[in-house]
Structure formats: C-alpha cells, structure tokens
Here is the input.
Amino acid sequence: MNFTKKDFYTIDDLLKIVDMLRDPVDGCEWDKVQTHKSIRQNFIEETYEAVDAIDKEDKELLQEELGDVLLQVLLHAQFEKEDNVFNFNDVVNGLAQKLVLRHPHVFKNEDIHGVDNILNKWEEIKNESHGHNTVSQTLNAVPNSFPALMYVQKVQKRVKAGNLPVPTQKQEIENIRKILDKMEEDIDKKTISEKDLADIMFSVVNITRLNKMDAEEVLSKKAHRFVKIFNIFEDLALQNDVVFDTIDVALLNKLWTQAEELVEEK
Here is the structure.
C-alpha cells in the first residue's frame, strides 16, 4: 500500500490510515480483527481519560486524549463502511443536520432566549425527531449502559420534563428519615434490604438533582477527598506507631480530624 509520511496530517489522511490498518491482507493484525463489541470498553476508557485530562486542566494531555477518542469514532465508522451501511462522512453529516435542526434560534432566527428555554427546545425537537410521544418512551431511551447514578438522574429529569409530580426535597428527606428508622430496627434483625438501600440512594439523587448538582460528580469528589484524607491519616498513624487492629476510637477520630485539616490547607 502506498503511503507518504507527512509533517502534518489532515482528517482525510487519518481516514486513509485507519483504512490501511483495517486492510484484510496488509493491515495490522490487531486492528483488522476488531469489532464494535471488542473495542466497546476501549471507547469508555478513552472517554474517561479525556475527562481526566479536563479535570487536570492539562491541555497537552487533552489534545492527545481527544485524538484517542476520535480514533474510536473512526474505527466504529470504518466497521460500518466495510459493511456498506454508513461511513465517517455520514456520521459528520448526521451530526451537522442535528445541530442545525436543534438550534433554530441560531439557524432559523427563532425567538428563543435563556439557557433553560434553549435546553427545553432542544429536548422538544429531540423527542419529535425520535418519535417520542410519551414519558415512557423518553425513559426507555435512556441508555442502559449509563453508570447507575447518571441513569437515575437522567430518568428523574425526564419524568420532571414530562410534567409529572416529583417529590420535593422535604418529601425526599422525610422519606429517607422513615427508611433509616426502619433500617435501624432491621439492623438488629440483620435484615437490611436492598430495596431500602436503593430507595435511599434514589431519593438522594433526586435531592442532588433538585439542587442542580450532578450526582456522579458529587459522589466522585467525595470519594477522591476520602482517599486524600486516608492517605494522610495512614501516614499519621504510622508515625505514631498505631496498629489499626487495636486503635481506639478517640485516637482514630483525632488522627482523622488532623488529616482532614491538612487536606483543607492544601
């Protein structure tokens, strides 16, 4: 296969490179045997790595990771091109058509102002284009592959968008309080149920959503903060020759508080 190395490649060059990698005869032994399912996890991992670069505010790393995400898109499009279903240009055209359709305030000069109104119009057009006439149809369209917290929040948001009654924060707190009272009794019986735990988490996600926060981000921040605190806590414990198996509660709380204060100072 003919290929000329360049100092700067374009999208057309990239498409040719992917095509060459997938060549049944001369292509890469790994690339040419891949399928949608075999690289499904790769897509997820590359996306998370791009998000991590955003969180780190590392522009150089972000450029690299965006390229890795793009490669996943190109490979999936290439698989379908080989089956004569669609190609990368069809993906580009479909995206462009969608953006023009869902931004009538930009491309049709419709009088729509305010972020909330713009987002509502986006959802309205989206539902029309997908033929969603009921709330159930919009709920069933939420991807099952979403992480649980993201899935729950999206479902709750679509129920609210359907003008159906959604519990208020006070109602959710009262619901959680009732379940906790029941769980306290169940602990003695060793009968804590999955349903009760799920109900509490579902209510907490709704409270998070009502406060315009993202449940996935809130819990992720908490988990990462916990790890930072624990790292310092363990160092403090080792410095004090503390053995975790025998540490008393008072000392544990003292060291943990110190670790929290040190994290806050950073």
